[in-house]
Amino acid sequence: MQTKDQMSEPDFQRLVQIALTDLAIRRTVAENDMADVNEEMRSLEKDDKLDRLDAQIRAIQSDYDHYRQFLDPEFKMDVTAPYNE
Hints:
Blueprint: H1 9-40, H2 43-68
Helix pairs in contact: 1-2
Organism: Secundilactobacillus kimchicus JCM 15530
Protein name: Phage protein
């Protein structure tokens, strides 16, 4: 396993952006699940599921906030560039 010191700064910034994108997607999925639960489940089941989803969203947001501290706002990444022919 390599350490951060062995990474170039652009590679590290790309990794941070990938992690932030993944966390944003996970949060959106959890929020969508929460909306579905609000519409579909009965009250006792709903409260339990909503509590678990809320805890999941808070944990995701905490990770997002942590990793966002490492993001260089000047670094611009074209997510499709490495995959173009």
